[in-house]
């Protein structure tokens, strides 16, 4: 077995133990020396496996103490960033799947006009997708894209990455988003498409997404199961 395969094997074995609770949150993993003996390999190989665990958000390396296991029952989603779900998959390090429940063009109405700053809305792409992580459907995305800026779309694209298509094929200059986070009662749609496990409320992130000329072209609601996520941001104080 090559060193590359060896460190990946150790990474996956340690990850399984973390997710199965063998190494619970806030516990220090065995030292690099101890892990080297356990896996009969070099400290360099162990260090590479631990570095990957840290990059994926499963452990935190603390100088002088070792590798602290983080609470992975809640997944961290950035508040300030504008990233697609596909891009987040890599940082989550978990099995994911996108399921498209509703897709097509609809006519704008008063509610949609309100979401698009009161402007008249003609045709809009509506996409309803659930995000399955580790076998559970725990996010429901309800997206609305103005056909004026997205003339063509397909269910296949929605199953993969809409943003990859918008930027890679349509060359849309997506620039920034305004986000609102609220807690709402679950709807019948939430109950139909999500594995709610008895929860009656849901965390809703409302995304208003703009092009670089400040044109609002997308409104999306991402509806998250309460127990599975924490929303994080980084703030720097200015004097």
How is this structure best described in words?
This protein has 2 domains: 3-69, Arc Repressor Mutant, subunit A (Orthogonal Bundle); 75-232, Chorismate lyase, CATH 3.40.1410. By secondary structure, the chain is α+β, with helices and mostly antiparallel strands. It has 8 helices and 10 strands. The protein has helices at residues 3-19, 32-38, 43-55, 85-92, 110-115, 155-160, 162-168, 188-193, and strands at 59-62, 66-69, 75-78, 96-107, 123-133, 136-146, 174-185, 201-211, 216-225, 229-232. Helix 2 packs across helix 3 (43-55). The mean pLDDT is 88. The strands form 3 sheets. A 6-stranded antiparallel beta sheet has the order 4-5-6-9-8-7. The protein has a two-stranded antiparallel ribbon with strand order 1-2. A hairpin with a 3-residue loop joins strand 1 (59-62) and strand 2. The longest helix is centred in the N-terminal third of the chain and has 17 residues, at 3-19.
Spatial gap, N to C terminus: 54 Å
For the biggest β-sheet, the strand order reads 4-5-6-9-8-7
Average pLDDT, all residues:
88
CATH superfamily descriptor of the largest domain: Chorismate lyase-like
Count of individual helical segments: 8
Any chance you could write out the topology, listing elements then pairs?
Blueprint: H1 3-19, H2 32-38, H3 43-55, E1 59-62, E2 66-69, E3 75-78, H4 85-92, E4 96-107, H5 110-115, E5 123-133, E6 136-146, H6 155-160, H7 162-168, E7 174-185, H8 188-193, E8 201-211, E9 216-225, E10 229-232
Parallel strand pairs: 3-10
Antiparallel strand pairs: 1-2, 4-5, 5-6, 6-9, 7-8, 8-9
Helix pairs in contact: 1-3, 2-3
